[in-house]
Amino acid sequence: MKLKIAVLTGxxxxxxxxxxxxxxxxxxxxxxxxxxRPVSFEIxxxxxxxxxxxxxxPGDPKSCDRYLRHLDEEVVRTWxxxxxxxxxxxxxxxxxxxxxxxxxxxxxxxxLGIDVLVVLGGEDTLGVAYKLHTLGIKTVGIPKTIDNxxxxxxxxxxxxTAINVxxxxxxxxxxxxxxxxxxxxxxxxxxxxxxxxxxxxxCSGAYIILIPEYPFDMDVVCDLLREREGREINYSxxxxxEGAKPAGxxxxxxxxxxxxxxHPTLGGIANSLALEIEKRTGFETRPLILSHLQRGGTPSxxxxxxxxxxxxxxxxxIVNEDYxxxxxxxxxxxxxxxxxxxxxxxxxxxxxxxxxxxxxNGRRSIL
Length: 367
Ligand code: F6P
Prior knowledge:
The protein has helices spanning 17-29, 31-36, 49-55, 61-67, 73-76, 102-111, 123-134, 159-180, 195-204, 218-228, 269-281, 301-319, 351-354; strands at residues 2-9, 40-46, 68-71, 116-121, 138-143, 183-188, 208-210, 237-241, 253-258, 264-266, 285-289, 325-330, 333-338, 355-356, 361-362. It is of the alpha/beta class and 367 residues long. The chain has 2 domains: 2-157 and 299-342, Rossmann fold, CATH 3.40.50.450; 160-296, Phosphofructokinase domain (Rossmann fold), CATH 3.40.50. The protein is elongated, with a radius of gyration of 22 Å. The N and C termini lie far apart (53 Å). The structure holds 6-O-phosphono-beta-D-fructofuranose. 6-O-phosphono-beta-D-fructofuranose is lined by residues 12, 122, 145-147, 189-191, 242, 265-266, 295.
């Protein structure tokens, strides 16, 4: 029996996606493994995530050329070294109540003869995979998001590379901050989860870290900066998550738009924070929004390794007919969890365990 696997990537891109696609492909098509399996596979990559599967016209060869890619070991050989996603991505929601295209999606999956879908995504993309699973489509999920906010897994692809970018950029910032005796407010991504700001801030030795899980008091921020004045250093680095907010206030939005899953785009807090600090303390303070640099570039060693392990595990799950589940890292081991358990729940920073609410930084007591 031969099964057709389709692979797609959805949501924000990140380093590690190409590696995971490579390892799903290589493992599924591996000749030694194939000889021992009751099934064999062919693999198709879907271009631009759910958008590709909704928009493709299975009867039109031109449309199939546009939205589908044949994948084999030769095609994916070098993919694990590259960031982004060679398949392209979108934030299309086929189950969007304002524009429901789920029927078209399911019809296309059937017409294209797709037996199993491997879906690489965060909460939204995997939420669609879960809905398809409840409708009888065989799905396997692979966690990816630089925000690292998916429940059911300790790791999501892209997070480690993003932390490395934050650390490298702040190292770079320090030389100029020191030369000019200037503070910098560095804004990270992360949506409602503070992992990028917290770990990025801890790795780069930031003086203050502000996260969405603990709304901050502007007086405390300014007091902490004043407390340091004239001591060991002539500047401070303040790392702020895009989703952080002053107590009693709303998150900062980049604009008024929402995506197909109903999410607004966060961003802009660094500008307002830098102005407010300068106004209140008189310390020269500049903003830096790291933005999409955090998602760019080549994958770190950890992301390459996790992409490999997640990709192999996803292929194993298909062989074992373990559908409706997501590959996961738990207690340092690769496992799988039901997709159902990861929907509508974010993995947020546990403030009591990880955050010092007096210093506005990572805790200095771990055990
Ligand atoms: O979820 C990943 C993420 O990078 C968030 O941290 C960020 O808020 C968002 O995507 C940015 O989205 P876009 O790529 O649409 O600007």
